[in-house]
Amino acid sequence: MNAVLHYLGNPHITGVLIEALEYYIEARYNNTEVELHLVRHDYDEPLDINSIYTLLDRYVLNDNEFYKRGIKYYSSKRELLHNRYNNVFLSFSTLDDLFGYFAYNHAFVSPSQCLYYAFAGTPAPNGYNRRFHNRYIRDDITFLLSEYHSYDIPNKVDYDKKLLFSALKPCTHPDKKTLLLNCVHADRFLSVDTIEHMNIPFQNYDDFVIITDITEDDYLEQLQYFCPIVKIYTPPVSNLFDLFTDYHYVPVAAGYDESPRFLMECLFYEKTVTVQSPWNLDGASYRHAKAMNPKYGLRSFDLTEFDLVIEALS
C-alpha cells in the first residue's frame, strides 16, 4: 500500500495538513489505491473529520466522494502498528512523532519547521524540544530538501515542496482595495503596538481584513484605529481569497518560516503581496524569490503527475 501519512498534532487546520491533502489528491488521481492516513494526537482534542472533508471543496475535483473514501482516520498512533506501507510521504514532524509505529519500504520526508529547530537545538514555538536522530539516516528514508537547506543529512535529494495549483478553484476580487493581515496562532500574533510600528500605509486601503483566533474585545476594538472599516474573521474562513486584494506578509515571530503556502497561494491568485522587513533567508523568502524569478515562476512549484513523490506513490 502507498499512502500519505499525517499526524494531527493539534486540532487546527495547518499548512502541513493541507500539503498532505494535496499530495494525496494528486497521487490518488494517478493511483486509485493511494490513501491518506490521519492519526489523531493521543492527548489533544480531535480535529473533526468533516473539517478534512470540507477542505476538498477548495479544489476542482470530479468526485469528492472518491477522495473521501481514501481518507482513513486513526484515533491513536498505536493503531498504525499493523500497517505496512510500500512508499509513504510524510512531514518530518510526523516522522518524528510516529517513528517505530509503522512499517514501510521507503519514506519520503518533507521538511517542516520542526526540522529547523531540531538542527538549531532550540525548542520550537509550540514548545516541543526536538533533535535530529541518527536513526533517520538510513537508505529507506529520503529527505526532500531545497537548495537553501544547510542540514547535514546524507540521505537527501534536492527538491522544492509543491502546491496543487492546477486544481485550486478560482477566486474573485473585491471591488474595494482591501488589505489582509494574517494573525493566526501565537507565532503570528501581532499586537496593536506592533502593527502601529510596521508603517503600513493604511490610508491607501478602503478595507482592512484581519484573520485571527484572538477574541479579546480590547484587541479587536483597538484594531479599528488603523482603518475605517476593519473586518475580523476567525479561521477557518470559507472563500478566504475572495475577501482581499492585498496581502502583507509578516515573518513569524520565531524568525523562521519553513514553507508558508498562504504566501504562495496569494501569488497564484494574483494578489498584491508586500513583505515586512527584515526578512531573513528562510523557506518563505526562498520560495517567494524563486516564484518571482521568470526563469522558474510559480510553475516550478506546481504539483503534477511527473513529481518525484507522486511517481513513487503512483
Task: Explain the overall architecture.
With 314 residues, this protein is an alpha/beta fold. It folds into two domains: 3-166 and 303-313; 168-300. It has helices at residues 15-30, 49-55, 64-68, 92-98, 113-120, 192-196, 217-222, 261-268, 283-292, 308-313, and strands spanning 3-8, 35-40, 71-74, 84-91, 103-110, 141-145, 156-158, 178-183, 207-212, 230-233, 246-249, 272-275. The strands form two sheets. It has a seven-stranded parallel beta sheet with strand order 3-2-1-4-5-6-7, sandwiched between helices. A five-stranded parallel beta sheet has the order 10-9-8-11-12, covered by helices on one side.
Number of helices: 10
Structural class of the secondary structure composition? alpha/beta
Global Rg: 20 Å
What is the helix content?
Answer: 10-25%
Mean pLDDT: 87
* Number of DSSP-assigned strands: 12
Sequence of secondary-structure elements: EHEHHEEHEHEEEHEHEEHEHH
Largest sheet: 7 strands, parallel
Domain count: 2
Shape: globular
The share of residues in extended strands comes to 15-25%
pLDDT below 50 for ≥5 consecutive residues: which ranges?
none
Features:
314 residues, alpha/beta, 2 domains, 10 helices, globular
